[in-house]
Structure prediction request, 221 residues.
Amino acid sequence: MPDGIFIVNKPQGLTSHDVVDCVRKSLKIKRVGHAGTLDPLATGVLIILVGKATKFFNKFSGMDKEYVATVTLGKVTTTGDCQGGTKLEQNFSHITEAMVSEALNSFLGEQEQVPPMFSAVKYKGKKLYQFARRGIEVPRKPRKINIKELKLMYFKPPDVEIYLRCSKGTYVRKLAEDIGEKLGCGGCVSKIERVGIGEFNIKDAITIDKINESYLKPWKN
Prediction:
């Protein structure tokens, strides 16, 4: 049985578990996992653990994450992203680049974040998104996160692109909602790309059609 990791560039539309299934079928092995879930909407770096490397799940999942995301101002949705139903639309024409930069700066550092309902966090043994899909909202405990870097990449209302470097457990869609709320116009995320996990970068990632043992990186803790 091979042991090691794949650095995969997950395409939009697939779940992280879909990618795990692809690896299982390609290598014809069962002992495969991933470190750090990406929503179907999101693309980018997904670390796939194979064989004995699965024992180091906590090490990989605990690494800092980097994202480039697009926040769409003036729109609040049921899911926190552009694929959800519209709950509220507000005027954003008065929002300036300086206002966005100031809002982003206010989120830097250690803080608490309430996980969104559309997430894989569990409540009474079930994942939150299972409740959310039935229109049920359940209580969630805030989690400690650390936003280490957050900056504006481009400003083209209603879309603003941000770069984010953060600790594990940070939800980009919740941050997008919070940024919109801070600006007083609402917001949702319309694009998420994870560009890095720890030392692993999107430049090193392979597409799922290239998954084979030749791209398996050895890993020893």
Residues 71 and 189 are 4 Å apart (CA to CA). Residues 65-197 form a domain with the Pseudouridine synthase fold (CATH 3.30.2350.10). The first helix runs from residue 16 to 27.
